[in-house]
Amino acid sequence: MQHMLDWDELQIFHQSAQHGSLDRAARVLDIHRSTVRRRIEHLEAEIDQKVLERESHGFLLTAAGERLLERTERIATATDDLIKATDRDSSHPAGATRVGATFNLAFGLLPDILAGFRDHYPERTIELIATADGCSPLQPDETDISFRTLEPGTEAHNEMVGRRIGRLQVAVSGTQRYLKKTAPPRSAADLAGHRLILGGENLSHIASAKWLKKVCKSAEPVYRAISMLTMLAAVRDGIGLASVPCYMGDAEKGLIRLLDLIPCLLRNFGYSVTHVTRIRPGCGRSVNSCPTASPT
Fold this sequence. Notes:
Layout: H1 7-19, H2 22-29, H3 33-47, E1 52-55, E2 58-61, H4 63-91, E3 95-102, H5 103-108, H6 110-120, E4 124-131, E5 145-150, E6 161-168, E7 170-175, H7 176-179, E8 197-199, H8 207-215, E9 223-225, H9 228-236, E10 242-245, H10 246-249, E11 255-260, E12 267-273, H11 283-288, E13 293-294
Parallel strand pairs: 3-4, 3-5, 8-9
Antiparallel strand pairs: 1-2, 5-12, 6-12, 6-13, 7-10, 7-11
Helix pairs in contact: 1-2, 1-3, 1-4, 2-3
């Protein structure tokens, strides 16, 4: 006949056998000595074998007790390992996190943020999916978290719940190579005398691009870029000046900030999740510590 043994009784036996004393086992388990004796007697009745041979100075393990001790030691070790693994898994969840982002953020800002996230959660794999706006043509539930930049007044994806972290600094920038040929601009009024790099139609909605086009409406651009990345490349190679996000421009050796744009022209930076319960532990904490986003 099989018995379902009480784990509490096995623990009491295990502690008694390890310490060689019912009194010591009682102190470790914070129970009365009579309870230790009674539970061991009940265990012996359940298995129909004596596990302790009582003597005047204490007790000795019987052969059945020696065999039982070997098994309880294995159970105790397995239990400790399970608890440690559970604690480790709960604080460092494993698996993949699917991250959606705009091309610019995926290139210029997110690598450093995601590196910090991986330092905290080394068991996680990052799957970074870059698109023009950070979500389309993806289905909203294809990513766990999406990073986007939005112009003032732009609505977020209607199937996502998000949070704005701050604004990303933008500046008119150029290279020392370009500035060898002309004096650097000290104000917006000075820009009209410079070679300017503007965005194409697909960048016309960006507030900083609108501002640069407006203040320099009398000047013809020397270059039009179809994306922020190609605009950055043109500035870096000395073609002219352009307004670029500082998280991209500051990373380019030789690129110099000339005019920081006023706050109302800065892009909002935030993250969105398809379902609040799906956001991974630490994601928000990692991005909120981003030094390039000024809080608002």
